[in-house]
Amino acid sequence: MLALLTIAGGILTISARNAVHASLGLVGTLISVAGLYATLNASFLAATQVIVYAGAVMVLFLFVIMLLDANRPVEDANPLPFIAPLAGVGGVILAGAFAILAFTYKDPRPMAEGVAALRNGAPGAVGETLLTKFLLPFEAVSILLLVAVVGSVALVQRPAVQTDPETKAASAALEGEVA
Q: How far apart are CA 118 and CA 147, in angstroms?
């Protein structure tokens, strides 16, 4: 059930036309992932998932959305017309990678050994694993989050209002008369 909720939240996140609805879909996904961690007896990871991601990161995203007034639905013409075909190609490549992974995956070690290595999600074991064996992916995810925030700010920037020189000259003349 939690896996289905996670997938449904992910689909809502990428298909919502309103940025606030997409953020709420992401919150649902993150909370469902925390539930998956809880079912694996990784209570520290579940609590961290809820506090850090569903809490702090989503508050940051919603703050950026509200600050930039990006909560209205997208109805304008796509400013980057090549994105849709590029996303389609990326989706096909990702689906192919998942299919290859699904058919060629071999468990590197038994589940009991993996659970013992993480000691039920204890903070020390998780921190040691993240900052030694998985340091590069850990830092890559932090850069990815930074790029996502910067990209969301860049995508919702409003173009400056362009006025014609005649209107500008007329308003300057009116200001000169008033002063």
A: 30
DSSP, collapsed to helix, strand or coil, labels residue 163 as coil
Q: Assign 66 to helix, strand or coil.
A: helix
Residue position matching structure tokens 């649902």: 28
Q: Tokens for 120?
A: 């039920």
- Average pLDDT score over the chain: 78
d(Cα 102, Cα 97) in Å, to the nearest integer? 9
Q: Hey, how many other C-beta atoms are within 10 angstroms of the C-beta on 34? A: 22
SS3 of 28, please? Answer: helix
Number of domains observed in the structure of the chain: 1
CA 12 to CA 32: how far, in whole Å? 13
Residue 178 has pLDDT above 60, yes or no: no
Cα distance between residue 65 and residue 13, in whole Å: 14
Report the phi/psi class of residue 120: left, alpha or beta, with left for phi > 0 and alpha for psi in -120 to 50. Answer: left
Is 85 a member of any domain?
no
| Residue 163 within any structural domain of the chain | no
CA distances to 63, 108, 139, 169 from 148, rounded to whole Å, are 14, 32, 14, 41
Range of the domain at 54: 2-75+107-158
Predicted local confidence at residue 114, as pLDDT: 63
pTM for the model stands at 0.51
